[in-house]
Design brief:
The structure is a homodimer. Chain A is α/β, with parallel strands linked by helices. Chain A is built from ten helices and eight strands. Chain A is elongated.
Chain lengths: ~270, ~270
């Protein structure tokens, strides 16, 4: 397949090389900033950096939107595609209907639309990732596009699922709890330890083991430990006293503790 | 050293074999339930299961309390030790002063007290753990006991720190955020996905990568991602709507989001 990436950020940084390694050709990388497009192009075989969203002259069949979610409506409004183009976004939080709306309202030429959502966190600072174990969630507005996207997904990953927009939204929300919020709790723990001149590294073996266990157990809830789980009110009270001058952390402590104790259900 | 374990739970299950592997002799395992003591004894070379807390006839020099934190005052009140015994607890949340208080008030014979706190999570269902990479936090009421406990710690782990009770309390509180609360967030994510017939396994590659990154980064805060970090209010609003019938989860979502955005500081 001939492919154009629109957006040269974290997702494109990993997905474009992975598609090339699977035998596809990335022709173009479009970015508002030519320097960003050039950086990604330097990882690719024979792609051209561009800034213009009028892509009627493009040789590509597939256009992959990897701009930030918030930028999607504006980018789609200025996107002009060749006939019969397939256009997909890679977002967990935006629906296929959203994309259809943006493309119909703003574009001159109707496109075949879909979603190609790799359920992973990407950073430009890493070496390109192996997608083999990364779930790819596919959705498309028509069966032909769906089949093409599934085939493409299977060429880079062994975990390809058809996931509709409502399901993808749930996965994304779940990932916010399981990843974004957990990451923040690690940051909180680092702040607490370092504020008392203790090394955060001391906690790392415990953190690693906690996650290893949680992901091995049939249910993370089965391996829940700690004062809230035990109903150890003495320790909970001590902890709340220790957090008296940090109301934000006290609030996190309280709602997490109540949720673990199931006082008010889920 | 000749050692007696008081408590046959998760910590003893791993620590007793580790101390034996380092060349020490576990003489006795005391548990309220003889069957529990017997189970642990079956892992050890030549230990004797007991239920009685009058241990004046014990050949041991070191008595390791591994009962639940809440049970410590009661157990200490009934504990009778031989002269010159060293008694340590293994708790993150109870101070050395607590132990001194329980031992002075209740025991007939004064003991040399200390804390031997392995900063790890233990389950009986696992094979005995290698303590090599597990931080051991030591505290003692006198220098001679401290030296003995440090030596003992260094025989099983390469990470032995002197940590006073106030510092240990901070480590324990930090671990509640970094481990207990994060584990609960994984359970929340599982509930959310499975309530919509989605496999929790789909999220596991993302969770693994999130933690790998967070623990490799100089600061987990540096690799924070997600709608709260980006200030993506549209996604945040959608997520809150999706949680409308789960007030507990909505509350977690709100306090975590506000904490990430730093609206009200830490």
């Amino acid at each position: 397949m001939n492919i154009t990436f629109i957006g040269a950020g974290n997702v494109a940084w990993h997905l474009a090389p992975a598609l090339e390694n699977a035998g596809h050709q990335v022709n173009e990388v479009v970015s508002r900033q030519l320097s960003h497009a050039r950086q990604l192009v330097s990882l690719l075989y024979d792609a051209r950096p561009r800034t213009n969203l009028n892509l009627t002259d493009s040789p590509s069949e597939l256009f992959v939107l990897t701009v930030p979610d918030d930028a999607l409506p504006d980018v789609c409004s200025r996107l002009v595609l060749p006939e019969n183009a397939i256009v997909v976004h890679t977002s967990g939080s935006r629906s296929l209907d959203d994309l259809n709306g943006w493309m119909q309202v703003y574009s001159d030429v109707p496109a075949r639309t879909g979603v190609f959502y790799p359920l992973q966190t990407f950073s430009r600072s890493q070496n390109p990732l192996d997608f083999e174990g990364i779930p790819i969630c596919i959705e498309a507005a028509d069966p032909d596009t769906e089949a093409k996207l599934v085939t493409l997904g299977q060429e880079i990953s062994s975990i390809v699922y058809l996931v509709n927009s409502a399901e993808r939204r749930i996965l994304h929300l779940s990932a916010v709890f399981a990843c974004n919020f957990t990451n923040h709790l690690l940051a909180v723990a680092q702040n607490l330890t370092e504020a008392h001149d203790l090394e955060f590294d001391l906690l790392k073996p415990l953190i690693r083991e906690t996650f290893r266990k949680a992901l091995l157990a049939p249910n993370p809830a089965d391996v829940q430990t700690g004062p809230a789980r035990r109903g150890d009110q003495k320790t909970i009270n001590t902890h709340l006293q220790m957090l008296a001058d940090q109301p934000r952390l006290m609030e996190i402590y309280e709602v997490m503790t109540e949720s673990i104790r199931g006082k008010r259900g889920r």
